[in-house]
Amino acid sequence: MDKLIQGVQMVSESGELIIGDVGITRNVISEIGTELDAGNAKIINGNGLFLSPGFIDVHVHLRQPGGEHKETIESGTHAAAKGGYTTICPMPNTRPVPDTIENLTLVNDLIAKNALIRVLPYASITIRQAGKERANLAELKENGAFAFTDDGVGVQEAGMMYEAMQDAAKIDMAVVAHCEDNSLIYGGALHEGTKNKELGLPGIPSIAESVHIARDILLAEAAGAHYHVCHVSTKESVRVIRDGKKAGVRVTAEVSPHHLLLSENDITKDDADWKMNPPLRGQDDLDALRAGLLDGTLDFIATDHAPHTAEEKAVGMKTAPFGITGLETAFPLLYTNFVKEGIWTMKQLIDWMTSKPAEVFNLPYGKLEVGAEADLVLIDLNKEQKIDRSTFVSQGKNTPFDGWDCFGWPVMTIYGGKVVWEDGK
Ligand SMILES: NC(=O)N[C@@H](CC(=O)O)C(=O)O
Ligand SMILES: [Zn+2]
Ligand SMILES: [Zn+2]
């Protein structure tokens, strides 16, 4: 044994909170028990701390290559490690887009050189994410693509989506969709509801998202593909996904912390740190997302970490780019506002950030068990601190949560048996 985490709180398989020790040998969890013999192992004092499998986020934007002024693989994985994540999947809306072997290899090489944790990159569905020409999905799979998506834009043509799903089904890979019909956006900057009218800004109707999801569920059924929906934001989307699951379609879905915590009513002024795609919707949408997560319609939580520079965000809601950061705030926000409030159990939150995304994408991570990869995060549930964007290690400081008082801050992240981030170091 190389490391022994002693006297730490964990969630058992049945959901109870238990106290125990966890031994790590090289990159693997080698023992779990009580009063384990340390031998020569380095002791990590887990007293008063909570231990979780390292978090998994299948939806992040690391911006490199091409967007290094917003984020890099190094700064983004640093932010992820600080947030307790050990596996993240970056979206392909970079320049170049990973749409060929050559372009995906470029991304893989950058990851090998710069990543602090496991980074499993998406490849695109279409060349340059332009929606016109299908990428060679089989070739991209062979070269390490995690799954396929054109996140950032919707695939506009049903025929293109259908053929991509047929290709993906043949190689048992998921098609992951940003659902947005461009003919229904109307130049919108926030939800078509009450706030956009108050602020005199164009709105994005809910149907821009839900229509695509309904279409794609029928396409996935016909193609026999695994179809995964990104950042679900409307009650109609939840309904059609629920119906799709009931009908036996292989549809899965994610929801973001901000869509679970905020609605358009929380926006008080024209401030682009509150601008993201999809936008914050109505209170009834927020309620439907929470219910959908609880009943399994929505499978897990993903942040959609989308860093932009302060200059880009300073120009107001109408023209600033969409997106907010998420990796450094997700757990404290969700723990404080759902678990501490008695709305979710700790097991539910941990599962939605670890084992559930792993199950959906067949990843062998996200479980605290003997033989598993030693990807772990130690969390101080009693540590109370305000979210302060100036302390973010992400280059992106764009968050609507600045100043929120939170408990449950990660203090140490272990990836493959190695400490990759420690509070204060
Ligand atoms: N979510 C966002 O608001 N922005 C994302 C794109 C995306 O996820 O669609 C980005 O790349 O900035
Ligand atoms: Zn998207
Ligand atoms: Zn995204």
Topology:
Elements: E1 3-11, E2 17-25, E3 28-33, E4 42-45, E5 50-53, E6 55-60, H1 73-82, E7 85-90, H2 101-114, E8 118-119, H3 137-142, E9 148-149, H4 158-170, E10 174-177, E11 190-191, H5 195-199, E12 203-204, H6 207-223, E13 226-229, H7 235-246, E14 251-255, H8 257-261, H9 283-294, E15 300-301, H10 310-313, H11 330-339, H12 346-353, H13 355-360, E16 376-386, E17 405-415, E18 418-422
Parallel strand pairs: 1-4, 6-7, 7-8, 9-10, 10-13, 11-12, 13-14, 14-15
Antiparallel strand pairs: 1-2, 2-3, 5-16, 16-17, 17-18
Helix pairs in contact: 4-6, 6-7, 7-9
Could you characterize the architecture of this molecule?
With about 425 residues, the protein is α/β, with parallel strands linked by helices. It has two domains: about 5-50 and about 370-420, Urease, subunit C, domain 1 (Roll), CATH 2.30.40; about 55-360, TIM Barrel. Helix content is about 30%, strand content about 20%. The protein has 13 helices and 18 strands. The strands form five sheets. The protein has a five-stranded parallel β-sheet. Strand 11, helix 5 and strand 12 form a beta-alpha-beta unit. The protein binds N-carbamoyl-L-aspartate and zinc ion (ZN) (2 copies). Keywords: Hydrolase, Metal-binding, Pyrimidine biosynthesis, Zinc.
